[in-house]
Amino acid sequence: MVKIELECSACGYREPYTHPLVTCRQCGKQWFEARYPYAELNGSLPALLRERPFNMWRYRELLPLRNDVNLISMGEGGTPLVRMDNLALMLGRPKLFIKDERQGPTGSFKDRQASLAVSVMKENGINEVVVASTGNVAISYSAYCARAGIKLWAFMSSMVAPEKMREVALYGTEVVKVTGTYDQAKEVSITFAEHKRLHLDQGIRSFATRESMKTLAFEMCEQLGTLYGPEVPDSPIAMRAPDWYFQAISGGLGPVGVWKGFEELRTMGLIRKMPRLACIQVEGCAPIVNSLRAGLETPQDVLMPQTNIIVLATGKPGVAYTALRRVMLASNGVAETVTDEESYRAMHALAKMDGISVEPATGATFAGLFKLISAQVIGPDDMVVINCSGHTLPVSEDLLGKTWARSVAVSQTTEAPVPIPQQEGLLAALERLDERVKSVAIIDDDPNAVRLLKRILQARGHYILYEAYNGREGLEMVRRERPDMVLMDLMMPDLDGFGMLQAMKADDALKDIPVIVVSAKELTPNERKRLAGQAQGLLQKGSFTDQDLLGDIHAAID
Fold first, then answer.
1. Torsion sign across C-alpha atoms 187, 190, 192, 195
2. Domain 436-557 in the same topology as domain 81-103+213-398
3. Of 25, 30, 179, 207, most Cβ neighbours within 10 A?
4. How many whole angstroms separate alpha carbon 385 and alpha carbon 117?
């Protein structure tokens, strides 16, 4: 068994870990860090990892559970690291990954927290616990407490989606709906736990919950090491840290825990560099980001959050701010705010571009990423990992709006076979769905660029799409199909974009078809002059967004 010590972060007092401590015996403060025999583990860990499945508990010796008999696990951790192919191409950031925590047993990264926290509760004989939550924590704790035989009381703001409350209740949890904010629900839960003398989950104050989050760092470094090779030559474990780690924050638990994971890997000599952290909050509830920007040592609370993204509506971060501020300063981190609307648009982009449906908190994370890329904070070669914290199920109406589906009425008559005129009427109804469709030809010798442009157009409108992979085939296709718009590259085999534009302008039947050039080439002044009057738009590959493309298309067609 690995010997673990608890260290007071305020005064440095240490003692062997036998049970969780609430206050330091020396200074009375309430923040402890778990410390492990790192030099010893550096020698034994490689062999252990080779024999273990890829999940959170493969790093068992770096987690504060004394006896495996108390381990409550449902396969949490070991989530995929997924490259965002289409978004990466669109944004010009080829090393863009998500850590897909939607794959956890209850669909969020809080399953890591629940697994370790509930295991520690069981180990210490706790049979009844109180937790305050905006949704994901209550769902995860409910599942793991049910498995451990621990009674759970979940205090939740009345603003939490009723679907999430019902899921919490399904596990047998006592759900207490508090009419007010999450911070008010948390205060009520504290009073209740004190009155009933029940164990209160301490959230970020609990070293066990923070320790669970560092497994994200362990996993992503292993996964990046497999893809790109070890950061440290001849390392016994191939690990590589990203340049950036992105996460939307409510109380700040995730980044604080993840940062400790990176610190431990560096202490063991498995990585050298430490990533920069990017923490994102919504504008309607951004006490941490606003306080960081103002250089405050204590946070300026938000008493009445103004956001529909309830999982991010923590207005009083308390002691979490101090811990996160330390981490952000150490990492040279960046704090950014986004609107609810920007978060929802990012959710649409992820689902439509790369087929990944995420919760609004992850939408906020990507909205922050888009802002920082636009501001040139994230370099083209930077390796970025985004915490995909959970799934969007169920999809709420305010995300899609009221016109997300079309209806086609089909006669329900049971009379003799439907006559031909009625069949034609149905076909006509289907055709009317597309009566405003525009046709677009995409001509590019890079199949990835063609795929990206197709996905943008398919996701944002109803277009008939044609494609060709060199200029000569493209010109023949345009003559044959007469599309309403042409999107073309400049540098192509057989006939380049300049030659194709010249041929189209010389043809009376084609000269009025608008053309938008989408090129990776940095054009010279002379080349720009050649395009003047011939192309209606010019977009640089790797630096445009779908809004840029759609804006140019609508301006040229309408």
1. negative
2. yes
3. 207
4. 25
**What confidence score (pLDDT) does residue 100 get?**
97
How large is the angle between the packed helices 471-481 and 497-505, nearest 10 degrees?
30
User: What's the confidence (pLDDT) of residue 406?
Assistant: 44
Q: Give CA–CA dist 368/341, Å, rounded.
A: 12
CA distance readout (Å), 451 to 456, 457, 465, 473: 9, 10, 11, 17
Residue 271 CA neighbour count, 13 Å, CB half:
24
Q: Estimate the crossing angle of helix 136-148 against helix 110-123, to 10 degrees.
A: 40
CA nearest to 244, candidates 391, 416, 368: 368
The 8-class DSSP code of residue 63 comes to S
User: Could you tell me whether strands 14-16 and 5-8 are parallel, antiparallel, or unpaired per DSSP bridges?
Assistant: antiparallel
Residues of the chain scoring pLDDT < 50: 404-436, 557
The pTM for the full model equals 0.82
Q: Is the dihedral of CA 349, 351, 354, 360 positive or negative?
A: positive
Query: Running DSSP on this structure, what letter comes out for residue 435?
Result: T
User: Sign of dihedral through CA atoms 472, 473, 476, 482?
Assistant: negative
User: CA geometry: angle at 196 spanning 194 and 199, to 5°?
Assistant: 65
Handedness of CA 314, 315, 318, 322 (dihedral sign): positive
Q: Under CATH, which number does the domain 81-103+213-398 receive?
A: 3.40.50.1100
The pairing of strands 32-35 and 128-133 is unpaired
558: exposed, middle or buried (Cβ count in 10 Å: 0-12, 13-18, 19+):
exposed
Ordered by start, the domain boundaries in the chain are 81-103+213-398, 436-557
CATH superfamily of 436-557: Response regulator (3.40.50.2300)
Question: In sequence order, what DSSP letters do the residues of 337-357 get, joined into one string?
Answer: EE-HHHHHHHHHHHHHHH---
Taking residue 128's Cβ as centre, other Cβ atoms within 10 Å add up to: 16
